[in-house]
Amino acid sequence: MRRTFIIAGLLALSLSLFAQTETEKQQAYDKAKKAIQLMDDGKYDESIEILKESGKLDPDNYLYPYEIGYALLLKKEYKKASKYLEKVVKMDGINAQCYQMLGNSYSIGGEKEKALDAYKRGLEIYPNSGRLYLEIGNLYQDDLNKALEYYEKGVEVDPEFSSNYYWLAKIFCNSDNEMWGMLYGEIFMNIERGSKRTEEISKLLFDTYKSEIRISSDSTISVSFCKNHIMGNEAGVIPLSMVYEPGLAFAAVNAKSITLESLNSIRKGFIDFYNDKKFNESHPNIIFEWHNKLINDNYFDCYNYWLMMQGSPEEFGEWYSSNESRFREFIKWFSDNPLLINKDNKFHRLNN
After folding, report:
1. Dihedral sign, CA of 39, 43, 47, 48?
2. Model pTM?
């Protein structure tokens, strides 16, 4: 469970008090900063007592009882935590994260039905909350089809929230339809950079390429990223899988093995195929459009090495030693020119 920072939540409050003399709200804020530090140090009981003082000084601010609920979760006192958080969700000014924490208190405490009820109550108020769809998906980890339904709904309504992509990448890359995992995983890495999960998905993408692009001893290439192919819809448009697999097979024709270097060439060859065959017109895709931008700006190789570095760290290290200045230049460019993901520019499996 991720840490929730009351300090960030209270910055707006502190700014409103900046020019004022000491007030009860300011005192509550100052006490809360101390309480958070104690909580981070594992001194939960002391933290809770100080947060209670903050709550008395500023009783309309939901953040203080919210943080008490979080501290009780850390103490593994799940029933007490849920009682606090049930009060929180009745307060003014709350957000979807409050229902997420309430549901988590029930879920971790083994009360799945109450957790599901809390998340769904939250969705009635915050229907575009990716984090609430995420948590419902997590409740169905033993029923992956059901979990996928909620993760993908989360991607649909809240495309900038990273965690649903993370789970979709893991599920699909370990299925018979890896193509979707490759696409969801790459989007995840663009949204959430520099985390342990980013490293995990980096390796997953590389390993999936290596397992699904097979090169035999006689240089025969086989590509298998999709179990089922539908020949076309009523409008005669072929499915994306019949663009993706043939395109990769075409691009891999001269590959001798799957490495970071060969994958950079294969992925570039795929985009050439995608554009040459006019699939960019019949099958527009934000990821492949993004690849075109990277190619045009001469950063596609740096991006590919970044994307899959955890799959072959030694090879990445060798490449980096010869390309350090270019890679540093790319990282700065990448920071200034992220892949644009929003409600008007997004990817969803069921729309492709």
Report:
1. positive
2. 0.90
